[in-house]
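call fold(seq) -> tokens
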Amino acid sequence: MHRVTIADVAARAGVSTATVSRVLSGRGPVSDAMGRRVRSAAEDLGYQVNTIARALRDGRTGTVGMVVPSITNPFFTSLVESVEHVLGQEGKELFLCDARSDAEIEARRLASLVARNVDGIIVSPSHGTESGRAVQETADRLPLVQLDRFVGGTETDWVGVDDIAAMRQVIDHLHAGGARSAAFVGSRLTNSSTEQRLSGFRRRAADTGMTVRDEWILLDDYTVEWGEDAVAQLATGAAFPDAIVCADDLIALGVTRACRAHGISVPAEVQVTGFDNIQFARLGEPALTTVDQPTDQIAAEAVRLLGAVGGTSRAHIALVPKLVVRDSTRGGDSAPKGDSAPGGER
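ret:
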């Protein structure tokens, strides 16, 4: 089968190959009428731009790699969707890799993307220290932006949400709703997200005089099952907290489910909050009060920073979060109540 070439398009349009090249690449002055003529000829013939040749000529492939800790986590699924949408608006394609929450797998994924000559990489590191070497080595070779999570000691741009400010909103809301003691349920302290959220939780709880017992700090994994196990542990203690602050919505959904199983009323006996505002948060029983992560804005900033990489200064953009109040807490005046869409307005 004959492969349609730029010469075929030029012959159909009755112009030179140089004119066709200017029209299809968007480079150089061409009249609107001429542009329409060339594009019509290309469409009629089914001409497709040779992306390999263009990449060799321009030194760019129009592709961006993205590595996330776990694509099964609904928050990262939403984040990937937002990044892909932003890249699509710029005519770029996304190559997605799942690190499976393993720093070694993540390092291989990063190396694979570099070998495929992507124009840049967006990564949410799996581990707060073990991911450092691969992330920095990759950043030394091509533009790289960390988002949501970050690795300390690396020299890259980063964009995410202000976890400390988020915990301030959560604790203030719970306190306004009558909570005077609180537990924290999160993942192991191997990533910046949990580290920052726990730090913000402890700090604001101390500021408000809220009681936090050592045995009420429960850390394991970002899963529904861990939320259920955490409630089972809390239920065997000498006292039960007035509130349970969860590091993500999956944990919180497990917590509310386990509370029902143990006959603990939410929010009458214990208030529960999540983090991320995933789609399932508003479908829980009761619907979760949670911190909304503006995934569309995070994605837009990450793509913008990726295109701006090259200077000596590094951007650290912490976006302001929003607390979405639903039925798993007792209210108060610290945040508006509603069912905003996950990941900000869409």
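The longest strand covers residues 63-68.
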